[in-house]
Design brief:
By secondary structure, the chain is mainly alpha-helical. It has a single domain, classed as SP0561-like (Orthogonal Bundle). The chain contains 5 helices and 2 strands. Helix 2 packs antiparallel against helix 5. The chain is globular. This is DUF1858 domain-containing protein.
Length: 77
């Protein structure tokens, strides 16, 4: 199993590749991801990089949480 998450990919694509990440992201503060309509619309065009700015969640916190849960994180350059 590929445990790499690219922060520059759309959130919907990340969740499609790693469904278990959805709950982690919601706990981090990405509450709109709990709404399937939001995931299908905004999630298709918004990356975790952009989402961190929009939601006011520090990118470092996202990276640390994902790494703590066993993921390699790319795309934060």
């Amino acid at each position: 199993m590929n445990n790499t998450i690219d922060l520059s990919k759309p959130v919907a694509q990340t969740i499609k590749e790693h469904p278990e990440v959805k709950d982690i992201l919601i706990e981090l503060g990405f509450k709109p991801l709990a709404n399937p309509a939001m995931l299908k619309t905004v999630g298709k065009v918004t990356t975790l990089l952009a989402g961190s700015r929009i939601a006011g969640i520090p990118l470092e916190k996202i990276k640390q949480t994902l790494e703590f849960n066993g993921y390699d994180v790319l795309g934060d350059e």
